[in-house]
Amino acid sequence: MEENNNFSDQTQQELSELLQIRRDKLSALQAEGRDPFEVMRYDVTHHSNDIINGFEELENAKVSVAGRIMAKRIMGKATFVHIQDKSGKIQLYVRRDDIGEEEYTRFKTYDIGDIIGASGIVFRTRTGEVSVHAEGVLLLSKSLRPLPEKYHGLRDTELRYRQRFVDLIMNPEVMDTFVKRSRIISEMRRYLDGLGFIEVETPVLNSTASGASARPFITHHNTLDIDMYLRIALELRLKMLIVGGMERVYEIGRIFRNEGMDSTHNPEFTMIELYQAYTDYNGMMDLAEGLIRHLAKTVLGSTTISYMGHEIDLGKPFERITMNEAVKRHTGADFLACKTDEEALGLAKSIGLDLTDLVITKGRLLAAACDQFVEDKLIQPTYIIDYPVEISPLSKRKPGASGITERFELFICGSEFANAFSELNDPIDQRERFIQQAMLKNKGDDEAMMIDEEFCLALEYGMPPTGGIGIGVDRLVMLLTGSTTIRDVLLFPTMKPEK
User: Fold this and answer.
1) Which homologous superfamily is 2-147 in?
2) In this predicted model, what pLDDT tens digit does every residue of 419-461 receive, in sequence order?
3) Burial tier of 127 (Cβ tally within 10 Å: 0-12, 13-18, 19+)
4) Any residues with CB less than 8 A from the CB of 426 and at least 6 apart, and which?
5) Could you report the per-residue pLDDT of 13-63, keeping only the tens digit for each?
6) Residue 149 buriedness (CB in 10 A; 0-12 / 13-18 / 19+)
């Protein structure tokens, strides 16, 4: 332990010395009247990939580039540096005779991590590397802290998530993930706009927490002197817009749930919810399938992807199977054939269902069996449809099927990617279900919904038959970028503060 402490002390001392050296360089520049932080603007004409990919047209052309110094090799009167911008890296060739002895001497003192601008002529070196022969170099920002070592300083995933800015600098694949995330969201909008949907915004702060089964974050509004809740879903306000006659609406928004954290859960996450009048959950299945297939084609160029060690085919029709049939397929148990809750309980025990903290009803036992014995086996895209009413307080009942609603969830590689309903539009039934949820909350269920009186009022004016769906954007980005944890697709995941 003493040896480790000594090593840590030595490392801290070396870092302190490096930090001081860089600050001394900055002070010297400022004393010369060359404070880099006073530079207001630098006009960039091309980025690195523009030059490399367009070399045939740009050879011998004059360009201006800017970026962060990532490597530097001084060879007497000439220096090769690689700078990194948003599209990649490009080499600069800087000679003393081209920029002047005084400027070249100053240039050689620039550190890895400094941000510079350079103007010059595009050429190819003897080794064949497309480069810029610099005619002028300007320090645009001084890096006062050294970048980590490429192969040692970034193995600490905790550090990568805490210091995403450094992660983006050092790992091109991380930058690529977030560029793809941006494209995925843009393509979502383009696809839905093309279908006649309207993008809207609804409140993040609400006087009730409803629209999903989740524990909310609570805050206080000082002026109104009331507690308020960060939204746990987008659903209810969007359906109120359907009542108002908008017919096709969607929102891409941040959701907040005061729950656990793991590889697929973060307390705040991005959801897209959309609602379409005059359709049902079958229409939502068709829409979700088309949307995901479109994203794979436009962002990845293929509907066949590799994820979690599996080859996933997003191009063929997604399987559709009822929850009860899926449970029968994997356990042999037919819960809907049970006439009473007691009979269903005996069936659950016979297949070894974990009954811990479980409310004993036939529908809840069926859902628990699906969760424990089915979901992790759903590798290829699969819609599990027709959910018990007990766990679907916002979903319309399925005609001719007692205790079952028109609801589905989409599973890929054992994870849920979407949740959708034929939306309940009966205001009397909806209020009764809210009351049942309120009773559960009074019994200590922190995730049960509150009664949303404003939503109940809206339904009384009449909502047309409607299909609605919520898709987890972060999980979808994980799927399309091959990421195994949600933290890899969130620029700033929730972290416990450092001491």
Assistant:
1) Nucleic acid-binding proteins (2.40.50.140)
2) 999 999 999 999 998 898 888 878 888 878 888 999 999 999 9
3) exposed
4) 396, 459
5) 877 899 999 999 999 999 999 999 999 999 999 999 999 999 999 999 999
6) exposed
Strands 404-412 and 415-422: antiparallel
On whether the 170-318+380-489 domain is CATH 3.30.930.10, my answer is yes
Decide: 491 and 445 in contact? Cβ < 8 Å.
Answer: no
**Rounded to whole angstroms, how far apart are CA atoms 338 and 345?**
9
One-character DSSP codes across 431-460: HHHHHHHHHHHHTT-TTSPPP-HHHHHHHH
pTM over 0.85: yes
Burial class (CB in 10 A: 0-12, 13-18, 19+), 40: exposed
DSSP letters spanning 150-199: TTTTT--HHHHHHTHHHHHHH-HHHHHHHHHHHHHHHHHHHHHHHTT-EE
CA dihedral 201, 204, 206, 208 (to 10 degrees): 100
For the chain, domain boundaries: 2-147, 170-318+380-489
Assess contact for 211 and 256: CB atoms under 8 A.
no
CA 337/CA 182 separation, integer angstroms = 47
**453-460 and 235-243 are packed helices; what angle lies between their axes, rounded to 10 degrees?**
20
Quickly tell me which residue has 């629209």 as its tokens.
211
Dihedral in degrees, nearest 10, Cα atoms 271, 465, 241, 403: -50
3-state secondary structure of 341: helix
Burial class (CB in 10 A: 0-12, 13-18, 19+), 365: buried
Q: How far apart are CA 361 and CA 351, in angstroms?
A: 16
Q: At what angle do helices 281-295 and 172-194 cross, to 10 degrees?
A: 140
